[in-house]
Amino acid sequence: DQQVKQNSPSLSVQEGRISILNCDYTNSMFDYFLWYKKYPAEGPTFLISISSIKDKNEDGRFTVFLNKSAKHLSLHIVPSQPGDSAVYFCAATPGGSGNTGKLIFGQGTTLQVKP
Amino acid sequence: KAGVTQTPRYLIKTRGQQVTLSCSPISGHRSVSWYQQTPGQGLQFLFEYFSETQRNKGNFPGRFSGRQFSNSRSEMNVSTLELGDSALYLCASSPFGATPLYYGYTFGSGTRLTVV
What we know:
The complex is a heterodimer. Chain A is an all-beta fold. Chain A has strands at residues 4-5, 10-14, 19-25, 32-38, 45-51, 56-59, 62-67, 72-77, 86-93, 104-105, 109-114. The model of chain A has no long low-confidence stretch (mean pLDDT 93). Chain B contains no helices and eleven strands. Chain B is globular. Chain B has strands spanning 5-7, 10-13, 19-24, 31-38, 42-50, 53-57, 64-68, 74-78, 87-94, 106-107, 111-115. Chain B is an all-beta fold. In chain B, the strands form two sheets. In chain B, strands 2, 4, 5, 6, 9, 10 and 11 form a seven-stranded mixed sheet that branches.
């Protein structure tokens, strides 16, 4: 079963506009959520995270919103830049000693930012 | 500060062979996790090691194994390779193995394994 879902395989936006990447999850035990960016032939790079006790976390151009009741989170990138073009992965972890090191990833969304 | 180093970057093996992949974590990081990335299944957790002990394991067959050395370097081994094992294998490190709220796990660039 896919516990973390990114239903949009791709997204295209104009430079300077907002990019919104969405992620849904099914496991209510997840307590941390993370977003990673991945370029071809490289490993994922950590972008931003949020705890389940928060509903928003902001870091520069990146903001993550969490709606626990809807089991939904989103990543907003404002303003979008061509260098943001990459695959974005949503990931979740239940936390706790029994789940150390384990991230459950979505399938990824390919973002293209057009100049 | 050096990142997570994985060797080799590319590998071609024949079905039935075995393979060993290496991961050197960031200096001071004691937790190493391994992931498999395929087009069909995405990124899937293999196992996690901390202080030379496997603490967590994903849903992979016993052909997939790993170990961690006293210097925190880790290796994973896949025996009796199958065509479906062709994938990008990624390792990630973190200082404590606790949930990385503020900075996430740091990933290496991966080893691309092709089984023919």
